[in-house]
Structures are given as C-alpha cells and as structure tokens.
UniProtKB/TrEMBL annotation:
<protein>
    <submittedName>
        <fullName>Ribokinase</fullName>
    </submittedName>
</protein>
<keyword id="KW-0808">Transferase</keyword>
<dbReference type="Pfam" id="PF00294">
    <property type="entry name" value="PfkB"/>
</dbReference>
<dbReference type="GO" id="GO:0005829">
    <property type="term" value="C:cytosol"/>
</dbReference>
<dbReference type="InterPro" id="IPR002173">
    <property type="entry name" value="Carboh/pur_kinase_PfkB_CS"/>
</dbReference>
<keyword id="KW-0418">Kinase</keyword>
<dbReference type="GO" id="GO:0016301">
    <property type="term" value="F:kinase activity"/>
</dbReference>
<dbReference type="InterPro" id="IPR029056">
    <property type="entry name" value="Ribokinase-like"/>
</dbReference>
<feature type="domain" description="Carbohydrate kinase PfkB">
    <location>
        <begin position="5"/>
        <end position="295"/>
    </location>
</feature>
<dbReference type="InterPro" id="IPR011611">
    <property type="entry name" value="PfkB_dom"/>
</dbReference>
Length: 325
C-alpha cells in the first residue's frame, strides 16, 4: 500500500473488568482482573497497522492523563497523531465489563474526542492513495458531528471513505447520517445497525437496500455477523456470504474493529473484496481467542491461520459468489 489509513474517529481509555456475570441491579461483583488499555478507534487502527498499513490519527486527544496514556499507546503502535492536544479537556473513557461467556457491556464518558472543529482538523490532509475512516461515535457527539460531516463531504472524490456506524447509530441525527452515507465508499456494520438504516429484512435484502437507497457512491457493503462471518454485496450486484471460522472465544471486545481494520488493509493492498472479507474474518477469529480489545493479529499470523484452515477444509473456504436481483 502506497498511501495511509487516515483515521478521523475517536479514541478513549478503556477500563476493562473481567467478571463471571453481570451483577443484578443493586448488587456488586468483584472482578477477577482489571486493565487500563487504549480503546475505541485505537483497536481498528492497530488492526490495520499490524496487517501492513501505515496509520495516522486525525481525531482529537485530550491534554490530561487519559490523553497522555493514549499518545503513548499510539507511539508504541507506530501511529502518528496529526492534531495537537485539546487544551482544556482530557480524553474520555469507557468501562468495559467482560463476562465469562466472552460478551461485553460498556459504559462510556466522552471527553476531548467529542469536541471537534474544522480549525482543529486543519492539520489533517489527504493525498492520492490514502484511505479515510470514521465511526458513528464521533458523529453521535453534538460537539463534533457537524465539523466532521463537513470535512468528510469535502474529501476529494478519489479518496475512499470507510464508515462504521457502530452500536450508537440511533444517537446520530438522520440528516447527519444521510450525508455521511452519501459519501461512503465502503460501509461496514452489523445486522442491527444495517436494519436501523434500511429497515427490517435479511442481510441480503438489507445490503441491496443500503446500496440502492442510502450509499449511492459505495463500492460495497459489509454486514458482519460475528462468528458466522459476514455478507458482502458489491455495487455491481455481486454478493457473497463469507463464512466465519470456528474458534473458542475468550473475549469478543474489539472483534468488529479488528474485522474492519483488516478488511480495509487488505482492500488497500489490492485484495478483491470477497478475499478481503475472508482475511478479515480470520483476523477477527484470531482476535477473540485473545484477551484485550487491541488483540488484532499480524498479517503473518492471519496467513498462517488461513493456510491451516485451507488444509483442514474449515468454513470460509470455497464460498461461491452470486448475483443479487
């Protein structure tokens, strides 16, 4: 890949508690472990960086201890921050509770990442070969959504823009969401998020409606289905459900971010979309066998995993494409 992934989403500090099950209302649980880690958009950036893409961050970090913690994590991962720290705010945080079934529950508190202006984004520029990514979190904040949407709409037409609406999609004003979707080159979401945009239906119908009615410039739509894999529909009507891989999960936190980061990285290197989707499925499968949100594998680890899967005839192999009506 000759260009960069320019991430203009948000990053926060995750406080991760591992518990056997969520406490009942009014009750208390003692965690079996605790960790403070970089989270939010950091997980997607790490996934892209570990699979061979140069990543830069164009969002906003704070000037307090959370911001300092995130800058150190970015530096350790080789991710350059393009914007100066917010002078009057620290970065936000998220409490993540990981239960024994590998599911996670979040409570977040926004910080500097929730306030963005075009002046703040002035140092963020793009060049031919770059890819740009944004998530719904930054668009959900009243203090950042307008500037970010204006910036996205002003992107040169030859710059691919990837969008993940995230679980807080219902907090994004419809007018903002529509403008961002209209500029989207690749949409990656889960089935619940797809239905929030396009109405009820199976993933095949949802993908078709997303392209026809909401993402007129998109090259394709990816609807992720966790362990089941993902469904990909291209603008030309070609579609494929790419099966996931059977693994024993220990932590699903960051799996979606890993999938998106690996998918974009593969596309940017020139992989065909369905091949990129299988690569992303493998990356996400490996990540859920490890603790931590930024548990994305390297390209070498993914290639080894795929080679072993091919040798054993694992799911995700030999899925045939078809034309949607």
């Amino acid at each position: 890949m000759s260009g960069r992934l320019v991430h203009i989403g948000s990053a926060v500090v995750d406080y991760v508690y591992r518990i056997d099950a969520l406490p009942a209302p009014g009750m208390e649980k003692t965690a079996s472990s605790f960790a403070q880690v970089a989270g939010g958009g950091f997980n997607m950036m790490v996934a892209a960086a570990r699979t061979g893409t140069k990543v830069v961050f164009g969002g906003q970090l704070g000037s307090g201890p959370n911001g300092d913690f995130l800058r150190a994590a970015f530096a350790a991962a080789g991710i350059e921050t393009l914007t100066p720290p917010a002078p009057a705010m620290d970065s936000g945080n998220c409490v993540a509770m990981i239960s024994s079934d590998a599911e996670r529950t979040f409570v977040s508190w926004p910080g500097a990442e929730s306030v963005l202006s075009l002046d703040m984004m002035a140092p963020v520029s793009v060049a031919p070969g770059d890819w740009v990514f944004a998530s719904g979190y930054t668009l959900s904040y009243a203090g950042s959504r307008d500037a970010l949407t204006d910036w996205i709409e002003a992107l040169p037409g030859n710059i691919p823009f990837v969008f993940d609406p995230t679980p807080i999609i219902s907090d994004i004003p419809r007018s903002i969401l529509s403008r961002v979707l209209a500029r989207t080159t690749w949409l990656s979401c889960n089935a619940t998020e797809a239905a929030e945009i396009a109405g009820r239906g199976d993933v095949e119908d949802l993908a078709v409606r997303l392209l026809a009615e909401h993402c007129p410039q998109a090259a394709g739509v990816v609807i992720r289905s966790a362990a089941k894999g993902c469904h990909v529909t291209l603008a030309d009507g070609t579609a494929q459900t790419v099966a996931g891989f059977k693994v024993d999960p220990v932590d699903t936190n960051g799996a979606g971010d890993t999938h998106i980061g690996a998918f974009v990285s593969a596309l940017a290197r020139g992989a065909p979309p369905f091949e990129a989707a299988r690569y992303a499925n493998a990356a996400a499968a490996i990540s859920v066998t490890r603790h931590g949100g930024s548990s994305a594998p390297t390209d070498a680890e993914i290639q080894t995993f795929l080679s072993q899967a091919a040798a054993t005839g694992a799911p995700g192999q030999n899925q045939k494409a078809h034309q949607t009506a």
